[in-house]
Amino acid sequence: MPLRGPKVLIVDDEANIRQSLRGVLSDEDYQCTAVNSGETCLAELARESYEVVLLDIWLPGIDGLATLARIQELPFGSRPAVVMISGHGNIETAVKATKLGAFDFIEKPLTIEKVSVVVKNAIQQRRMDLELQRLHEDNASPEIIGDSVPMKALRQQLKLMAGTNGRVLIFGESGTGKELVARALHALSQRANGPFVEVNCAALPDDLIESELFGHRRTNLDGTPDHKIGKLQKAHGGTFFLDEVGDMSLKTQAKVLRALDEHRFEPLGAPQSIQVNARVVAATNKNLEREIERGNFREDLFYRLNVIPFTVPPLRERAEDIPVLATHFLREFSLAYGRRPKELSEDALAALVKYHWPGNVRELRNLMERIVILHPQRRIEARHVPLDAARKNSGNKPWDGFGSLQEVKEAAERDYILRKLEESNGNVTRASEMLGLERSNLYRKMKSLGIASKE
Ligand SMILES: Nc1ncnc2c1ncn2[C@@H]1O[C@H](COP(=O)(O)OP(=O)(O)OP(=O)(O)O)[C@@H](O)[C@H]1O
Ligand SMILES: [Mg+2]
Fold it and tell me: Could you give phi then psi for residue 174, rounded to 5 degrees?
């Protein structure tokens, strides 16, 4: 049994009620806190998050209903379920409270059964609401930026194929936007109101992936049931995104193949199979045909998944998208970090366009975030764009693109200092220790190299 159960906040001005509720709930392993007024309740909720609040209707100071109204203003994710406690005289108020968003009410005199059932249901309901909300947020339609010929073609293909139920396999190097395409397919489909559920096959070890995909039914040593709903079941009515499908073991591949063929599957340890209706979209950065030759990927599964192939081209093959992507990400991070809007100088843009982007759009996005963090000024020049790797990697002459020894020295210094600043999380004192420099010296160097301090 878990040592620390869900958190419950008890709000009642009568000490004996606080005490008995605390006793009952603590026996059931809830973590209880008890307060005696609406004001202290709200203060406690601002400090800590609770899953359930047991709230007396009649309270000195602001009463139960007013407290409830304030709780309903909390952001969804941190809002507890509220159960009202009512005396004989105020059942009607309690009913009104449920209309205002309370989950339920319990009437005095309180009994152990009433309290424990209502609290348990409230927690269950709240967790389900949160999960639903999360699935909805995941569905937000993403914007695919870029007007190069290959991206226009991709958008066209998306429009044509989104409405069908055909399985889609998305190919593309790491960071090209495969997940974005999968989400767009979902958002443009008739299933857009259903869930989009993702499983990353590379992130999970083999034994976990099966229970993640199919769910399980077990009994713990102490006899309590341990049921897990698989992601495939959660995707019912929506889209199921199998990311990094090339990293699935042969054993899991066999099970997935069966589930795809039969549209049903059995949770591990469950006696019955479950039927699902989900559109399957898979993605991989591997060459699956080569994996098939090597015996790492099942050919039959490949053909089942690859009904409609999509290819997201690497960023270096659509360099004309780089300026608009870079500008987009600069704007996004300036907003997120509360910085002034920025613009890229022509030289800076030219350097970005020339680079070969092995990490594709993700690398560009990360670089723009780093620039926003490190450089407060509005105009970003080429020297603020740490693409020395680009120079090193473009052919065999690592110092191409440098005009003088001074520039080489500065680029190396800038790169090294930036790295140490990153390692020290922007802490200049720590970075100066790592670099063996006086703090004031490092400041001066940073200034002359155009590195802004995060502090
Ligand atoms: N065309 C685009 N427009 C806007 N943002 C993009 C575009 N392509 C990619 N991105 C952004 O770049 C990042 C990487 O994209 P995504 O996660 O879709 O790539 P991926 O191909 O799934 O990568 P990996 O193989 O590493 O999983 C995300 O933050 C995504 O939003
Ligand atoms: Mg991905």
Answer: -60, 135
